[in-house]
Amino acid sequence: MKLVKTVSSTISISPRRNGIGAEISGVDLSQPLDDDAFSIISNGFQQHRLLVFRGQNLSVKQQVAFSERFGKLEDFPDPKDQADGYKTVLRVSNIDRATGKIKPVNDPGHKSFTLGTSSWHIDSSFRTVPSLASMLYAIEMPEEGGDTMFADTTAAYDALPENRRAALHQLMVVHDFEETRRRHKLPPRPPEVQAATPPARHPLVTERENGRRALFLGSHAAGIDGMNYEEARAFLDDLEVEATKPEFTYRHQWSSGDLLLFDNICVMHQAMPYDLANSRRLLHRTTVAGDKPLASVE
Ligand SMILES: [Fe+2]
């Protein structure tokens, strides 16, 4: 454990035993952070890519203030998905905001969101400029289930043999939101909706500013330049299995007051099942926008 004393607090960073992510304690995120405290958290995030803060008590406004320290936040356009009217805060929930009741399990929007997030994914990887980071803050959680799995694709990349890595460097992957729907046998969205989120191409292996490399994968990955669909699907599926081996993953069992910050380029995530019809689950998500397309290795 690394202890760092700042003017306002003593922040400790405890890397998880298998090296996937770290736990941060000694910081109250509801309060404005001085620059020293923020730089410790920011450096910890660069190093570990997934940070777990427990026992927080945050208003929507306070979560936004902390999130904005990392950069500009993305907007979530649909008012019924926004928390307390904040367009930068997405309700991740089975609870209808208007009624406060659990949504019908077969509500089409709810069903497609639940199915989509049950796959390993990177939020919005189908955008030309991917999102940098996402933050999930737990408000109401089921007694059982509803965990989130995280897979660190930097660790997965590092574990590949050198010749295997080199073969991946040249590959360009098409990411298409429709692919996730196809894989869950959901009907395609209307053409005008699809047109608003066209597919994007990204390098399979990307290099971050700190020199670390990662596999950019996830359920929206729909094809690879130079391969037919079946070939690419099999290739991507095999690589996903490798990248999500237990040694590269962390399973978070949520308690209310947990806040997780994760790199949305080097870390895939996946929502685990819970009793959708009878258990209430509410998290607030904020997402830090990217500012440029992904860099390739060569
Ligand atoms: Fe997600």
Helix-strand blueprint:
Elements: E1 2-5, E2 10-15, E3 22-25, H1 35-48, E4 50-53, H2 60-68, E5 82-83, E6 86-93, H3 108-117, E7 133-140, E8 148-152, H4 153-159, H5 162-169, E9 172-175, H6 177-183, H7 191-196, E10 200-203, E11 205-207, E12 213-215, E13 221-224, H8 229-243, E14 249-252, E15 259-263, E16 267-271, E17 282-288
Parallel strand pairs: 3-4
Antiparallel strand pairs: 1-2, 2-3, 4-15, 5-6, 6-17, 7-15, 7-17, 8-14, 8-16, 9-10, 9-13, 11-12
The structure holds fe (ii) ion.
Fe (ii) ion (FE2) binds at residues 117, 121, 123, 269.
List its traits.
alpha+beta; 17 strands; 8 helices; binds fe (ii) ion; nine-stranded mixed sheet; globular; three-stranded antiparallel sheet; Double-stranded beta-helix; 298 residues
What's this entry about, in short?
26% of the residues lie in helices and 27% in strands. The mean pLDDT is 93.
Protein described:
- The protein has a single domain, classed as Double-stranded beta-helix, CATH 3.60.130.
- The protein has helices spanning 35-48, 60-68, 108-117, 153-159, 162-169, 177-183, 191-196, 229-243, and strands at residues 2-5, 10-15, 22-25, 50-53, 82-83, 86-93, 133-140, 148-152, 172-175, 200-203, 205-207, 213-215, 221-224, 249-252, 259-263, 267-271, 282-288.
- Strands 1-2-3-4-15-7-17-6-5 form a 9-stranded mixed β-sheet, covered by helices on one side. Strands 14-8-16 form a 3-stranded antiparallel β-sheet. It has a 3-stranded antiparallel β-sheet with strand order 10-9-13.
- The protein is built from 8 helices and 17 strands.
- The protein is 26% helix and 27% strand.
- The model has no long low-confidence stretch (mean pLDDT 93).
- Strand 3 (22-25), helix 1 (35-48) and strand 4 (50-53) form a beta-alpha-beta unit.
- With 298 residues, the chain is α+β, with helices and mostly antiparallel strands.
- The two termini are 36 Å apart.
- It binds fe (ii) ion (FE2).
- Fe (ii) ion (FE2) binds next to loops.
